[in-house]
Amino acid sequence: MLDLLGSGAVANLAPSMLLLVLVGTAAGMAIGAMPGLSATMGLALLVPFTFVMEPTRALVLLGAFYMGAIYGGSFTAILVNAPGNTVLHRNRAGGYQMTKKGKSELASWAPRWDRSWAGSSASSR
Predict the structure, then answer these.
(1) Is there a contact between 42 and 32 (Cβ–Cβ < 8 Å)?
(2) Angle at which helices 89-100 and 55-79 pack, to 10 degrees?
(3) Smallest Cα–Cα separation from 80: which of 69, 96, 98, 94?
(4) Cβ atoms of 75 and 34 closer than 8 Å
(5) Which of 4, 8, 37, 56 is at 20 to 30 A from 123, Cα to Cα?
(6) Which residues lie closer than 8 Å to 82 by C-beta, 6 or more apart?
(7) 28-55: b (≥16 Cβ within 10 Å) or e
(8) What is the pLDDT of residues 22-79, one digit of tens each?
């Protein structure tokens, strides 16, 4: 059991997988930051490109894209008061008020901690 866990960790820390995480997160942040484009819509656009990929790599890319899109959408929710999806309404409520007071940098830290905590707690269960 532990040998499978170790081999999975080694496979996911390969440079090609880390590159997929980087590309997926950056693309997701770009799509998520555009008002009107949601994480689900971005995933729907990305899925055809993953048909030619190995399943593990495709799932890593899709997961990184989704997390990046949710995080990227928080920028428009906080700065412009235009949430891209329903998850970001609570970011919009408090974050936009902080932006109007000149504390937008502080408001943008909350989604970072929220996304990193949610991602790490979901993967540890």
Answers:
(1) yes
(2) 40
(3) 96
(4) no
(5) 37
(6) 35, 76, 92
(7) bbebbbbeebbbebbbeebeeebeeeee
(8) 999 999 999 988 888 888 899 999 999 999 999 999 999 999 999 898 888 887 777 7
